[in-house]
Amino acid sequence: MGPIRQKTGIFGGTFNPIHYGHLLIAECARAQFGLDRVIFIPTGQSPHKEYMGADMSQHRCEMTRLAIQGNPFFEISEYEIHNTGINYTWQTLKNFEQEYPGNELYFILGADSLFDFSGWRHPERIAKEAVILAAVRGVYDTAAVDEQIRCLSGLYEGDFRRIDSPGFDLSSQNIRTRIAAQAPVRYMVPEAVEAYIREHHLYKL
């Protein structure tokens, strides 16, 4: 019997700002699939979203670092932030395959990304590099996610699974809108993240 392979979760996102929905998804994935660590990777220059600049990238990293402190299973990587040019998921996974040789990689994403998956660069490579873990979020319910998983499993050689997590419909965009309107975001983001946002006057109109 060979050595037990460690399981590393990869959770990419803009985290602008990171909120309790992100943390809940990561913790549910960790517990359900026995992950040894979950690495939060704030996106750098994404092919899907407008680049927000170096200053905002550092703010996003710092908020993520504050949000995950205290959880020994959570880590942060600034790999994409420091990687110049467009960051593609298949390349990021390749990097972490080299950084954690022999580990089994689990790529965590939301339901919206699961439904966009075939439009990503080299989805077949992503499916080959990691087990894909999808969280139910937003307008997509459990049945819709399960059906998409069946569809993608037929298209790609990979392992697609659903994360069993409670419905927690939060979005960073909604939080930014609330902050701009001076509405409360307590219990939506960790206290340390809220304090950081206010200290640095982020998301104001």
Describe this protein's structure:
The protein is α/β, with parallel strands linked by helices and 205 residues long. 43% of the residues lie in helices and 16% in strands. The protein has a 6-stranded parallel sheet with strand order 3-2-1-4-5-6.
Features:
9 helices; 205 residues; 43% helix; alpha/beta
Short structural description:
Helices cover 43% and strands 16% of the residues.
| Proportion of residues in helical segments | 40-55%
Report, as a whole number of angstroms, the end-to-end distance: 60 Å
Biggest sheet strand order reads 3-2-1-4-5-6
Q: Overall mean pLDDT score?
A: 93
Shape: globular
Order of helices and strands: EHEHEHHEHHEHEHH
Biggest sheet overview: 6 strands, parallel
Number of strands: 6
Radius of gyration: 17 Å
- Low-pLDDT runs of 5+ residues are none
The assigned structural class equals alpha/beta
Beta-strand fraction estimate: 15-25%
**Helix count?**
9
Secondary structure topology:
Blueprint: E1 7-13, H1 20-33, E2 37-42, H2 54-68, E3 74-76, H3 79-82, H4 89-99, E4 104-110, H5 111-116, H6 123-129, E5 131-135, H7 142-155, E6 160-163, H8 172-180, H9 191-199
Parallel strand pairs: 1-2, 1-4, 2-3, 4-5, 5-6
Helix pairs in contact: 2-9, 4-6
